[in-house]
């Protein structure tokens, strides 16, 4: 093969590799989306559907009759309340006080601002 033919073959191989890469990237994005959706579907907040309401200046996600006997999460948005709920769901009893993580974050923020 001459130099021109070599260059053409090289370009064709690069084009095929780039097309394959784009195809894999697209498939990964679809699989990544499906994985993220499946991961979210496995969370306690998705499966248990805690009651969502506004409590003062925070959103609250509550599973149970009340905060003392149930599991609760708080946040500035419904999603943050669900994330806090999911964390609270897995806490041991001594750390599962309502909104424990939200209160801890608020305390840490106040301490940072005080410095």
Structural features, described:
With 115 residues, this protein is an alpha+beta fold. 62% of the residues lie in helices and 14% in strands. Strands 1-2-3 form a 3-stranded antiparallel sheet. The longest helix has 39 residues, at 3-41. The protein is elongated.
Largest sheet: 3 strands, antiparallel
Radius of gyration: 25 Å
N-to-C span? 73 Å
Low-confidence stretches: none
| SS content category | alpha+beta
What is the number of independent domains? 2
Strand and helix order: HHEEEHH
Beta-strand portion reads 5-15%
**Can you count the helices?**
4
How are the strands ordered across the major sheet?
1-2-3
Task: Output mean pLDDT.
Answer: 78
Task: Identify the overall geometry.
Answer: elongated
Beta-strand segment tally? 3
Question: What is the helical fraction, as a range of percent?
Answer: 55-70%
Give descriptors for this structure.
alpha+beta, 3-stranded antiparallel sheet, 2 domains, 3 strands, 115 residues, single chain
């Amino acid at each position: 093969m001459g130099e021109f033919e070599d260059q053409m073959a090289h370009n064709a191989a690069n084009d095929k590799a780039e097309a394959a890469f784009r195809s894999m990237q697209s498939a990964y994005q679809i699989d990544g989306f499906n994985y993220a959706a499946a991961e979210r579907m496995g969370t306690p907040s998705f499966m248990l559907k805690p009651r969502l309401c506004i409590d003062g200046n925070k959103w609250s996600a509550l599973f149970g009759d009340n905060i003392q006997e149930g599991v609760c999460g708080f946040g500035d948005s419904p999603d943050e309340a669900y994330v806090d709920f999911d964390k609270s769901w897995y806490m041991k009893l001594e750390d599962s006080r309502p909104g424990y993580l939200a209160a801890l974050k608020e305390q840490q923020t106040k301490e940072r601002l005080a410095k």
